[in-house]
Structure formats: structure tokens, C-alpha cells
């Protein structure tokens, strides 16, 4: 399972979750910073990524279009990077079940 972290999350997160989510990326390393959400959505869909963001725009897009790609919505406000890492690490089983689900498009974590 590959996560694609949106620009509103630190790119340092990728290195701290790589053992659980191999081949995950940040939009920054892919040259997708300041890119329209539609292009990030398309990239994630074409490359089998699960988008992770605090951006409600992706939430709306997921409701409108469904999956793929799947979307993990972090409803955590302004939280330190360590908290985001903790959420992703502590919820690996829930995230795995979500990704494997045929029907679910959005997972909200907080």
C-alpha cells in the first residue's frame, strides 16, 4: 500500500512511515507542489496511491467521484508532524482494511 502525502503535510513523514507503507511518496518529491487537486487525484489514481491529506477539497472530490484513488482524511487541525506520524503508525491495521475494502472511498482519522 502506497500513500501519497499532500503538500499540507510534512515531507519528512514519508521517511518515518516507510517501514509500514513502503513506496509512499510526498507530492513535493514528485514535483506536484502547488498543483491542482485534480492532477494530484489523477496521478494517485494512475499510480495506485492512497491520498492522505488534511484538505477538505479531497474529501469533496472523494464524495463526488468515489474511488480509486482512496482518500485518508486527517481531521486533526494544526498538529505537529510527530502526531501525524503517530496516527498513521497506530492505525496501520485500520488503514489496511480500508484499502482492501471494495466499497469504502474515505477513511477519516483524527
TrEMBL record:
UniProt domain DUF5615: residue ranges: 1-107
Protein name, UniProt field: DUF5615 domain-containing protein
Organism from which the protein derives: Pseudanabaena biceps PCC 7429
